[in-house]
Amino acid sequence: MKIISVVGARPNFMKIAPFCRALAQEKSIEHILVHTGQHYDVRMSEAFFTALNIPNPDVHLNIGSGSHAEQVGKTMIEFEKVVKAEKPDWVVVVGDVNATCACSIVAKKEHVRLAHIEAGLRSGDMTMPEEVNRLVTDRLADLLLTPDRISNANLAAEGVSADRIEFVGNIMIDTLESQRGKAAQIDLSSLISREALSENILVPQLSENNFAVMTMHRPSNVDSMETLAPLIEFLTTEVAPNMPLLWPIHPRARKQLELFGLWDKVVKNITLLNPLGYHDMLRLNMGAKLMLTDSGGLQEECCVLGTPCLTLRWNTERPVTLREHGGASMLVGNSVEKIRAAYQDVLNSSRAPRRPELWDGHTAERIVSALLKHA
Description:
By secondary structure, this protein is α/β, with parallel strands linked by helices. The chain is 47% helix and 14% strand. It has 16 helices and 13 strands. Helix 6 (149-157) links the parallel strand 6 and strand 7. Helix 1 (10-24) packs parallel to helix 2 (42-51) and helix 1 crosses helix 7 (171-184). The mean pLDDT is 94.
């Protein structure tokens, strides 16, 4: 059996690593790894392949940046050539990035069976391009590999037949479990000194459970002065004075801070870091008192690690991570009032790890078994 798996952007890398390892154990499977190159610089791509021991891609499409239409269109053109040449039995896509959607369309037009890892996630927010990618991919997929039972219910409500759905658990937790020992060995002070954005950045003394970490890059949070300025005011005047606040800053967020004249205020009050590799970010999550993020993957990690998480979004495709479903995350959007109330609540809470069903570090093996079963 021949399988082509696809990665395109940073969120995919942590998910494909355990899948590649599981496939390598199955001698009856020929595996071809395709990297579309949606995230293509060293910090966003190559460093993750090295750190997570992901095999070098067999095919690199070198798509690069561009609008959503440009990325999807270019990926389809180049990936079609690969599928025609290799004639795989399965195309396996991961997550919800543009490469996921583009390669799904190509697979079905070429009459190749399609499997989707992380199927069934829904935010209900059609303004998110990721939601469009999820819906298109799940509508086309022959095999839907779900991370939780809420996702199963979403697919059933959309009319997907039960024989196409396999509940396998969360593959990103496979990577967390295999790498947390390595991450735990990283010294916090050394990490901060090494990854500080510049020599002039504030470098605090850190100890376990006495600092906060944030990531924020979504257009809904950073593209409007009316939204971003109150957030920065709250972070610099209410969070940072209370505990060290670390921000591995995304290029988009930095650009907007500079555009709106907020950069100097941030630099003076928040410890700014370069975009971090997987192990460094995991280490910060393991030691943080609090996570503030608009990232989906960090919500999942916070759930298992027990790090209280304020999710800077009005909806989430991962409701299993929310407190009301037994997780560690609270939806606070970008309302300073909601963020402030949740922040005060978190200050009085303790770390409480939660592990949803089948988030056990063995999802990749179940995925390979499902592919063989449906073959």
